[in-house]
Amino acid sequence: MISMNKHKFKETEIGMIPEDWKIKRLGDVSRFQYGLGESAEEAGEYVYIRITDINSDGFLDNNNLKYINKNKVTEDYILNNGDVLVARTGATYGKTYFFREDFKATYGGFLIRFLFDKRLIDNSFFFQFSRSNLYWNQANNLVTGGAQPQFNAKVISEILVPLPSIEEQSAIAKILSDLDSKIELNQQMNKTLEKIGQAIFKRWFIDFEFPDEKGRPYKSSGGEMVNSELGKIPKGWEVKSLSEVADFIRGFSYNGTEKSKIAGELVFVTLNSIYEGGGFKREFSYLSSNRLKEHHFVREGDIVIANTEQTKTGTLLGFPGLVEFPYGYTKEKGCFSHHITKVSPDSENMKYFFYYHLFINQEAAVKYHTGSVIWALDVNGWSKNEKIAVPNDYLLNVFSIFAKALFEKRLSNAKESFNLSSIRDSLLPRLMSGRIRVNAEAAR
Question: Edge-to-edge, what's the strand order for the sheet holding 30-34?
């Protein structure tokens, strides 16, 4: 199915490729359709895909999707399975996305859809090609626009694509997309595990239907409830302020020379490490500095929250994440920026309970925002004034064991996905240059 290439090669404008491959301009194998210039909405019949919804792997980030009403979308703007979109402006120009969702969607004006001649080029093959250096070297040379690069249809049409037979294109794409599918499956599983954790938390600590001593749901089975400043709570629980049960620690104020996206002494958790809508985003930076203090360090599994938000929509401020480290990172600690606050509950068995409480009650944090241009969280005022109903130690411990298992499974999936991504990325240049050949049987 896969073999190291013994075929003859020829020199081309994009380097050496097999003699039996062709090269075509994208403009000769595709037309281009700009997206809709409409505003995204909180509800609607179609998902409205924006540049910000596409992650660095070319998958859709489902954490904060927006929508559009169907009366604003004509049939020819509805995405079909296998469509490829490309970002045409800003820092993410050239980044592509392969649509394979089970919902109806359209796309915004800063994205362009490829309308390929399928006799000449396979959609999935092109998507994989767009991840390669053969693509990016050309894209970076062709792009225009200075501070706001414009990757428009005229520019895109000049990109040269190596074209094996359509059968070999499909075979190459299948090998790479099979790896993508496993990565995507892990991502979906992690989202499901997160939803399970939230659902159990709500059941136990908001609805008060945690198992009683006989395994029955507490409140509906007649468990004793008592009055409190938060309303009725189970007997034996206590109402405290957030600051009474956890420490809130601001991160390191760095300068530009200390931070790097590539390498450094310690992994650096920044504002970009928290998803809008909550959860930890595996977008890592690194830091090297002799100014770090002990309170600037963070460990895997620690709770961090965003204390800054530029959009002023309340979709990031106060949302928590549980810290993860990159695959292969061998140090026990990293550090975190001043746009992040570390939350350290008083006891280890309270950590996951507190994480889900912050997640589900994030809107309470947004009420404590300050600033007009950029929002900042008044952590001191919020943590002193907001109250929490704290369960007994036994219930906290039971929930901690369950939630820790969920987190460790999510972490294992994330690191497996990174390993699969590394395998895919090592195969990609060899397959796209023909140094490894794949026969058509691999596509079946």
Answer: 30-34, 111-116, 84-87, 96-98
- Are residues 51 and 110 in contact, defined by beta-carbon separation less than 8 angstroms? yes
Asked if 246 and 331 sit in the same domain, the reply is: yes
Domain extent at residue 81: 24-163
Helix/strand/coil (H/E/C) assignment for every residue in 210-260? CECCCCCECCCCCCCEECCCCCCEECCCEEEEHHHHEEEEECECCCCCCEE
Token pair recorded at residue 227: 């009055």
65-115 per-position pLDDT tens digit = 889 998 999 999 999 999 999 998 877 888 999 998 888 999 998 999 999
CA dihedral sign of residues 312, 314, 315, 319: positive
Mean pLDDT of the chain: 91
Share of the chain above pLDDT 90, in %: 71
Amino acid at 191: K
Domain shared by 271 and 381, yes or no:
yes
Structure tokens belonging to residue 73: 């979308």
**What letter would DSSP give residue 17?**
E
State pLDDT tens for residues 389-420.
999 999 999 999 999 999 999 999 988 998 89
Strand partners, 269: 336
Q: Domain tally for the chain?
A: 3
